[in-house]
Amino acid sequence: MTELSAELSKKLSAAVDKMPAFPKSVQRVLELSRDMNCPPKELISVIEKDPVMTLKLLRILNSAYYNFPKQITSVNQSVMYLGLNTVKNMAISFAAIGILPQQNAAGFDMQKYLLHSLTTASLARMLCQKFGDEDTDPGDCYIAGLLHDFGKVMFAQHMPEEFKAALSYSAENNIPLHSAEQRIIGVDHTVAGALLVEKWQFQKSLSETIRHLHDGSLTESTMQNCLFVADQISKLHTMGHGGNPIVEELPPNVAERFGGNLEDIIGQLGDLSKVLDEARTFAQVGKEASK
Question: Any idea what DSSP says for residue 36?
């Protein structure tokens, strides 16, 4: 990675500091989930004490998308149906949706960005479940997909003119957005995103996965492989739009691991319509419950 100038490092740090923190309840959930000996009831208790988070969880679980045979009325009941990790990741998802700005001076479409992030998250989880190893949690791959482009949100809010120029340069020259950002801003959104998830106190493996998503340096990382492939599938099928029109070629080791090119991999995953349906449901409930 190119070394940043002192001026750019200062500007980037200031932008990171201006980004909102996750709600205290979600920060506590992250803290507890790092403790392998934490009793599930303690995590459930933290979520239940956050009425907004509880409302969002119950609203999504009682939506037509899940179509459970009876109404879910408590966080504890939702854990019984879906498992603790899934509920935890739902809480993190709604927290991420909740801190997205409504508008930005760069003209970056946050709704399309959100759909891209949510679909990438679901696809990364699916890929890990099918092609991963026992050392990598599919739930962690979901969170990587959810947060992998959050550096773009930071750019759109706090470096809007530079980001707008990078978006235009990418589209006009048909090059990946991260390459345009490096040319226009001097640093790309993966570096910004890694700094953000470090601020939010996620595990180091997540920040490193995001930081090196496009440089190919984590070729042996299951999380990085799943995230990279998921990102390309989401772009190929236009599941939202993260400002980057370019579908990148899979590195040879990734193609070998997943059994072929993108179309081959998609064929192994099966019907992907539910991925977009789930993302739209999450985005809608997240918006409604925040009003």
Answer: T
